[in-house]
Write a structure and sequence with these properties.
Rossmann fold; alpha/beta; globular; 4-stranded mixed beta sheet; Four Helix Bundle (Hemerythrin (Met), subunit A); binds 5-S-methyl-1-O-phosphono-5-thio-D-ribulose; 20% strand
Length: 368
């Protein structure tokens, strides 16, 4: 993706320095664009846990490189295995909901185990992490190509009038390695000359929509409008939303979708108003081991201060201000689960399918 005419991915290995992985620190976007260098396992743990990076596919890519860096810093010989086991535990404990984290760690760990010497293990971990991020970017690109067909069809029915797409949180290129999941069809449509306009949910409490999705769309030149989280239902009742496209942090085998808190309410409003509700995901975001999303997906609870305080730019400085009465407690569930019955379809790198087990398994027969 481009920022000021320069192409970026969200994560990359520093040129001529395989011990340094660069990320875009998202905490102060859109006001500060900062590239951070991660060099130690602890740097990776902090970056994921404290949301310097975020979004399911990017969390996966960061964890993959984190385990590679852990292998580099692990002692030779007997202590190596124990060091790696501890590293996996630390990385797993950063964020509980996005399944890409666990899938990426599994993949790098099993590649690493195939090596016999430390240097072989490090090399395998490095190769696998590189393959994983390249594959993740390609999957997002393909999601865009499949989703484009849906937008094209609506645009034709509207006789070229802008297609109004509502999205929640940030499932854009900054949540992934490149392209995004929910935004990938939007960028593909915009680049194909189809008129699109995006309603961007601000996405309290961390405002990933207002801060990050808006920043991305602005940089790509896509017309958009930021809306308070509770505006979507009203827009849908008045025919101002043609479709909803969101991402996901974990989708079950039966099509239940965990995504940023508030997604479920958008799905209910879409259902009530006959607005198509699509979920975009690469295969790394499926959890093939569970069926019942509401009962089985672990929901992250974050610090209540993310609700009590709000961050923005004041006098040219990033500042946090208290929003609530000092003594009022707050609660901060990071995600909710949208049941499959409210999902019109899943847009994956292999194509589009209904949100039910048999349709999903037709696309992914190896997951039976
Ligand atoms: O808490 P976050 O910012 O990591 O949550 C991100 C989301 O909920 C995204 O919508 C989801 O990860 C899909 S990202 C392609």
């Amino acid at each position: 993706m481009r920022i000021n005419d320069q192409h970026y991915r969200t994560i990359w290995v520093k040129e001529n320095d395989p011990g340094t992985v660069c990320i875009i620190d998202q905490r102060n976007l859109p006001h500060e664009f900062v590239i951070e260098e991660l060099k130690t396992l602890q740097d990776f743990v902090t970056a994921i846990r404290d949301m310097h990076v975020r979004g399911a596919p990017l969390i996966g890519g960061t964890a993959a490189y984190g385990l590679y860096i852990a292998a580099r810093e692990a002692p030779e010989g007997l202590g190596f295995e124990t060091y790696i086991e501890q590293a996996v535990i630390q990385l797993r404990n950063t964020r509980p909901t996005a399944v890409d984290l666990f899938n990426a760690l599994e993949r790098v760990l099993s590649a690493l185990k195939e090596g016999t010497t430390k240097s072989e293990k490090v090399a395998r971990a490095f190769q696998t992490a590189n393959e994983l991020v390249d594959e993740s970017a390609e999957h997002c690109r393909l999601i865009g190509q499949h989703g484009l067909e849906i937008i094209k069809e609506i645009a034709e029915k509207k006789g070229g009038q802008p297609v109004n797409i509502l999205t929640h949180c940030n499932a854009g290129w900054l949540a992934c390695v490149d392209y995004g999941t929910a935004t990938s069809p939007v960028y593909a449509a915009h680049d194909a000359g189809i008129a699109v306009h995006v309603w961007v949910d601000e996405t309290r409490p961390r405002n990933q929509g207002a801060r990050i999705t808006a920043f991305e769309l602005l940089n790509h030149g896509v017309p958009h409008t930021v809306i308070p989280d509770n505006t979507g239902g009203h827009l849908m009742q008045h025919g101002m939303v043609d479709l909803v496209i969101v991402g996901t942090d974990r989708t079950t085998k039966s099509g239940d979708v965990a995504n940023k808190i508030g997604t479920y309410l958008k799905a209910l409003a879409a259902h009530d108003n006959g607005v198509p509700f699509y979920v975009t995901l690469p295969s790394s975001t499926f959890d093939w081991t569970i069926r019942d999303g509401v009962k089985e997906i672990p929901i992250e609870q974050r610090n209540q201060d993310e609700v009590r305080f709000i961050q923005g730019l004041a006098d040219g400085k990033i500042t946090k201000v208290l929003l609530t009465p000092t003594e009022s407690p707050a609660v901060n569930y990071g995600f909710d689960v949208t049941p499959a019955r409210l999902v019109t379809g899943l847009i994956t790198e292999r194509g589009i399918c209904a949100a039910n087990e048999s349709a999903i398994l037709q696309l992914y027969p190896e997951a039976v």
